[in-house]
Amino acid sequence: MAAAVDFYFDFSSPYGYFASTAIEALAAKYGRSVNWKPVLLGVLFKTSGAAPLTEVPLKGAYSRHDFERTARLHQIPFRLPQKFPVPTQAAMRAMLWTADAHGAARATALAHALFYALFVDGIDISAPDAVLQIGVSLGLDAQLLREGMDSDAVREQQKQENALAMQRGVFGAPFVIVDGEPFWGFDRFAQLEHFLAQTGAPAAPLTAERSASAPMLRKG
Amino acid sequence: MAAAVDFYFDFSSPYGYFASTAIEALAAKYGRSVNWKPVLLGVLFKTSGAAPLTEVPLKGAYSRHDFERTARLHQIPFRLPQKFPVPTQAAMRAMLWTADAHGAARATALAHALFYALFVDGIDISAPDAVLQIGVSLGLDAQLLREGMDSDAVREQQKQENALAMQRGVFGAPFVIVDGEPFWGFDRFAQLEHFLAQTGAPAAPLTAERSASAPMLRKG
């Protein structure tokens, strides 16, 4: 089995959201699983000196336009929330706890729901209560999730995940690393596919059995 | 005739060089001409607070890798010069003077030669003498070109072109504006093509006559 694709993202990045709608199918096409790795862009930006796209003069107006155009082109439902960007500590902690407590498949489902809440339904997921409600809607226990998000262990893990990402050279999001090869941005997914096609394991035919135990939903 | 494509670039940007190898064929495919518009990224970056890609921690190493990968993928000859990035005032002035004195076609030929000198032959085009030599190799008069590059008129025009670009929202390069629609980056050329295909005039068949008077080589 070829190595997994490491998929780094921040919940507040529209390009990360776009990438999240495509990464699983792309990886699966070349026999790869996906490791979903939430990070905090604010922490990463301290290293690279970057600022949120929409807050940069000129670039901000352009990026808002580009979000809409990119979503249209890829037919991804999208509406930039009124409050943007939003802090994503709560969302990231919820995902880390869910992965630890219930495995990667549940955590990935939560990630999709959080992205969708922010960029389709316009829900402010910076609020821990909003994150909790989304978790509950996916069958997670409200009390355990709340305690998990507030736990020292998860806070510590959050710091470590950001530090580890930076150690690997991740300076933005979405960011994919596969077989040591880095790809920054949803607009590198064509190059990512080219790379996977050249070096990835040939895609096995998707049988019912394989589909039922899809490795990308299992691996942590 | 549909409106021209405005193509903004800085001679020191590898992505601008990659774009320069593709923009004419892309525009011509949809019946458009190209206005070649050199700018100074250093001036634009003062507004947006950006820094040269390769000088940003982490992002610098990635971008060097991405330059090579992108060149390989598009089969564009490329070697990052040892001295990089380089100041491009002299190259920009030479192009402005050539456009004024000899028309857009000669200026475009000079632009291609300058990009090629920097990113294929590793020539330091920050040196006015290197720019002069390249101009002479294209049949330009050394004395007139030197005087033109040093003239107050061209220096003033250089300032104005940068200011006009910023007024239009250009904050990076390469940057294309067509029918008011902005596209930042060589990695938006697929979206640019999508846009041209939807809104551009249908491409006329390229006859020998039309080829000989290709509008993209004539318009200023």
Strand content of chain A: 5-15%
Mean pLDDT of chain A: 89
| Overall number of strands of chain A | 4
Class per helix and strand makeup of chain A? alpha+beta
Helical residues, percent of chain A: 40-55%
Largest inter-chain contact set: A-B, 29 and 29 residues
Number of helices of chain A: 11
Q: Sheet with the most strands of chain A?
A: 4 strands, mixed
Write the H/E string of chain A, N to C.
Answer: EHHEHHHHHHHEEHH
The residue ranges of chain A in which pLDDT falls below 50 over 5 or more consecutive positions are 203-220
Strand order of the largest sheet of chain A: 2-1-3-4
> Nearest-angstrom radius of gyration of chain A?
17 Å
Oligomer: homodimer
Shape label of chain A: globular
Measured between the Cα atoms of the first and last residue of chain A, the distance is 15 Å
Can you offer a commentary on this structure?
The structure is a homodimer of 220-residue chains. By secondary structure, chain A is of the alpha+beta class. Chain A is 54% helix and 8% strand. Chain A contains eleven helices and four strands; from the N terminus they run βααβαααααααββαα. Chain A has helices spanning 14-20, 23-29, 41-48, 59-73, 89-102, 104-119, 128-137, 142-150, 152-167, 189-199, 208-212, and strands at 5-9, 34-38, 175-178, 181-184. In chain A, strands 2-1-3-4 form a four-stranded mixed beta sheet, sandwiched between helices. In chain A, α5 (89-102) crosses α9. The relative contact order of chain A is 0.20. Chain A binds chain B through residues 47-51, 56-59, 61-62, 65-66, 69-70, 73, 166, 169-172, 182, 184-185, 187-188, 190-191, 194, and chain B through 47-51, 56-59, 61-62, 65-66, 69-70, 73, 166, 169-172, 182, 184-185, 187-188, 190-191, 194.
